Amino acid sequence: MIFEYSARTRSGETRAGTIKAKNREEAVNQLRQQGLILTSLREKKATGVFGMGGSVKDKELAVFTKQFSVMIDAGLPLVQCLDILASQQENKYFAQVLEHVRNDVEQGSTLADAMKKHPKAFDDLYTNMVAAGEAGGILDVIMQRLSVYIEKAYKLKASFKSAMTYPITVITIAFLIVGLILWKVIPAFASMFAGLGADLPLPTKVVIALSHFVVKFGWLIILVMIVIFFGLKKFYQTETGRRVIDGLVLKLPILGVIFKKIAVARFSRTLATLVSSGVSILEGLTITARTSGNKIIEDAIMEARAHVEQGKTISEPLKDTGVFPPMVVQMIAVGEQTGALDTMLSKIADFYEDEVDQAVAQLMSLLEPVMIVILGGLVGGIVVAMYLPIFTLIKHIK
Fold first, then answer.
1. Which of 293, 208, 312, 202 is nearest to 250 (CA)?
2. Strands, E assignment, the chain
3. CA-CA distance, 211 to 110, in Å (whole number)?
4. Where are the alpha helices (DSSP H) in 310-340?
5. How far lies 168's CA from each of 68, 165, 256, in Å?
6. CATH number for region 216-398
7. Closest by CA position to 360, among listed 177, 140, 155
8. Which tens digits make up the pLDDT trace of 228-268?
9. Domain locations in the chain as residue ranges
10. 344-349 — which CB contacts under 8 Å span 24+ positions?
11. Quick one: CA dihedral 137, 139, 140, 145, positive or negative?
């Protein structure tokens, strides 16, 4: 969600602009953390350019950034670069965004300020790095770093999806198959057994009882699942909800370890990219916290930021949170002491990105036989339960 705000600084200066947040409460907290006294805040209803909806994929943004870097390095003017890239862009929404940016730059705006008007295409991290590149006269280098960052972030996101998609897909298929069997197949067997008047074994009675429940209350089961889904979604939009659910996610067996590694890799890569590009450590920590994707990690980073603001190190508060592994904290401490924090963070990111790839590969190899056993056990158990009375009848006939 995008919010438009008006605020005052502690010195009395007036500020106005837009801020990206999941809900109103998060927007208010972000502005307070920036030391602003809020006077008005409202959701920006219009989406995209000219009120049109749209989005920019990570791959599209990475390709644009790399091409932009090459053009700037070749000495082409910004306006010409944006004009060429807008004309080549297949995503119509993104093409319109680039045209708007080009027009603003042509009228004297900085590239960073022009991009800030389109938060759906260019987030805080992107625009802050562009601003640092413009200020230092190294925009081509910054764009190259951004391109690498976006590609690695996309790879990390793909790893996260891989870790989630397979088990969810298999569980969903198992649920649908078992539900279909209980709803359509078992009633036919139940009618046949009732006609024979046979004394049924306990497993068969349990399966038939489940079948009766599904047939009678199937609509209620679906309704409860929908209510739970939307209830959890609504709960997650609150500060407390995010903190509770994100905390539980990090504590999940096997998956929790992977999510923690993903969070550490994302934190390290983002902060390393920002610091090496000339963004201040305080601004870098704020942006990194917002893009962490986990409320527990975000709180830990903001705690570290508060300590840095008081003149302390980053590593100590990160250690106290218990979220970051000891090795990460030690390497950050060494980076701070040697003045090579960005280099150390990049090494941490490289290490944990490899760790995530290995962990996801191991998870896939482990989940495949486990899911097959679970699915086979459920379906096989139902089949055996329904054939037990038939075997008993055949035995009595003999």
1. 293
2. 2-8, 14-20, 37-43
3. 66
4. 315-321, 326-338
5. 39, 5, 15
6. 1.20.81.30
7. 155
8. 999 998 998 888 888 899 888 888 887 788 888 888 888 88
9. 2-45, 58-151, 216-398
10. 345/268, 345/269, 345/271, 345/272, 345/275, 346/268, 346/269, 346/272, 346/276, 348/264, 348/265, 348/268, 348/272, 349/152, 349/265, 349/268, 349/269, 349/272
11. positive
**Segments in the chain below pLDDT 50:** 45-52
Tokens of 365: 């190899």
What length does the chain have? 398
Same fold, 58-151 and 216-398: yes
DSSP 312: -
**CATH label, 58-151, candidates 1.10.10.60, 1.20.81.30, 3.40.50.620, 1.10.1670.10:** 1.20.81.30
End-to-end CA distance of the chain: 72
C-beta atoms surrounding 296 within 10 Å:
23
Strand partners of residue 14: 8
What pLDDT, on the 0 to 100 scale, is given for residue 46?
Answer: 40
- Per-residue model confidence (pLDDT) at position 44: 61
Please state, in angstroms and rounded to a whole number, the distance separating the CA atoms of residues 192 and 114: 73
Give me the residues paired with residue 291 across strands.
none
Amino acid at position 111, single letter: L
Burial 59-88 (b: 16+ CB within 10 A, else e): ebbbbbbbbbbebbeeeeebeebbbbbbee
Query: Residue 397, Cα to own-chain centre: how many angstroms?
Result: 62
How far is residue 365's CA from residue 356's CA, in Å, rounded to a whole number? Answer: 14
